[in-house]
Amino acid sequence: MEQFKLFINGNFVDAASGKTFESIDPGTEAPIATVAQAGKADAEAAIVAARKAFNSGVWSGLTPVARMAKVQAFADRFRERFPSSRRLLASTSSAGSCA
Question: What pTM, to 2 d.p., does this model score?
Answer without folding.
Answer: 0.69
